[in-house]
Automatic annotation (TrEMBL):
This is Helix-turn-helix transcriptional regulator. Residues 183-281 form the HTH araC/xylS-type domain. It comes from the Bacteria. SMART domains: HTH_ARAC. GO terms for molecular function: DNA-binding transcription factor activity; sequence-specific DNA binding. Keywords: DNA-binding, Transcription, Transcription regulation. It holds the Pfam family HTH_18.
Amino acid sequence: MNHDELSSMQPSETIEKQPDYYFLPYITLAHMFHAPKGWSIRNREMSQFVLQYVVDGFAYYPVGDFHYETRRGDLLFHRPQERHSILTVEDQPYVCISIVFHFGTQPFPYDDLFRNRHLLGNFADHPVDDMLSQLVAHYRQPGLPHQIRCQGLLLQIFAEAAQWGETYAARTRSDKPHIPKLVLIKNYLHDHYYEEVRMKELEHVSGLSKNYILALFRKHVGMSPMQYLTWLRVNKAKELAVQSNLSVSEIAERVGYADVHTFGRMFKKKTGLSLSRFCSNMIYS
């Protein structure tokens, strides 16, 4: 039985067909999808929960009476029987990760976690981006160890999304005077991701000390500036892999790596899969 069939069933129907599951959450689909031109879904209702993550591009995403414009990094959550649509735009790509899951017959406090939100946050250049890619990679592998890793990653994603919602407003208020300088640093990294960047350059750009920059980044971004630079390179590599016909060595050079083997080790360490495997995980139709 393929995973598309499992994801369309009622939760109780899937349990006996998933012999490697011994505890919740039960994951019935985890894939990366590259939408072909003109693709859309209208007024769909699922019998299970769905996480939808925008890897690249843009789409309109109505859920019930709420309408969202989703961009790279946006993570949406909707409940069983919530009517939703995914509407792509002609001149924009849309690459997403879809996770379909349920909790069997056990109650789960998802509204306490997510406070009735559909848009759980933007996780571009955040560890959640990596967790989602790893989840897809492990889901495609047979065996109980991979299945348990998938469940653990999904629970980690829940925790990160819940924490994002609880702390975003407070983080923004407490460091409000320095947010423009944080933006300056991030913009500098975006503009120079393919170069060797040193902390002294970031101190010069922002006028802040190294220690304060590190604290500010960890508090608001969830990683250090150099880790953020690596995430930028990973995501740019993903974008080039999706949107171009460049070879792995050409992509490595475009994102700042003269040695393709160093790039390959970095990409696999951060995403859990090679760049070629990342491309093969995408579903085009």
